[in-house]
Amino acid sequence: KTITSAVLPALGGFLFGLDIGYIAPILECASFKRDVANITDPKVEISDAIEGFIVGSFSIGCIVTSFPTVSRYFMEEWGRR
Q1: Whether the predicted model's global pTM rises above the 0.70 cut
Q2: What percentage of the chain carries pLDDT values higher than 70?
Q3: What percentage of residues in the chain have a pLDDT greater than 90?
Q4: How far apart are alpha carbons 13 and 39 in whole angstroms?
Q5: Which is more confident, 15 or 70?
Q6: What Å distances lie between residue 47 and 24, 38, 58, 76, 79, CA to CA?
Q7: What pLDDT does residue 20 have?
Q8: Which of 17, 39, 67, 75 could form a disulfide with 79 if both were Cys (CB 3.0 to 4.6 A apart)?
């Protein structure tokens, strides 16, 4: 019981960090810059403020959808049938 209560939160934290780690290469992708940041030249970098806002938005989205009531809505309404 004790080991399970320690391993599950550790695994959740690891997976959350892994998800956030995926955003770094996406921020450099030319199509992401064009579609999300409205930057047409792929050599231009996203400003630090915009980059922080994007990463923060992803983090807030992860936290909000981790609540069962919110995630249940999205799974029932938008999930596969």
Answers
A1: no
A2: 90
A3: 0
A4: 33
A5: 70
A6: 14, 12, 17, 37, 34
A7: 65
A8: 75
Torsion of CA 48, 21, 28, 47, to 10 degrees: -10
State which amino acid sits at residue 47.
S
Residue positions counted in the chain: 81
| Three-state secondary structure readout of the chain | CHHHHHHHHHHHHHHHHHHHHCHHHHHCCHHHHHHCCCCCCCCCCCCHHHHHHHHHHHHHHHHHHCCHHHHHHHHHHHCCC
Read off φ and ψ for residue 30, nearest 5 degrees. -65, -40
Left if phi > 0, otherwise alpha if psi is -120 to 50, otherwise beta: which for 73? alpha
Q: Which residue has the tokens 């409205």?
A: 38
Look at residue 77 and tell me whether its pLDDT is greater than 80.
Answer: yes
pLDDT, position 19: 66
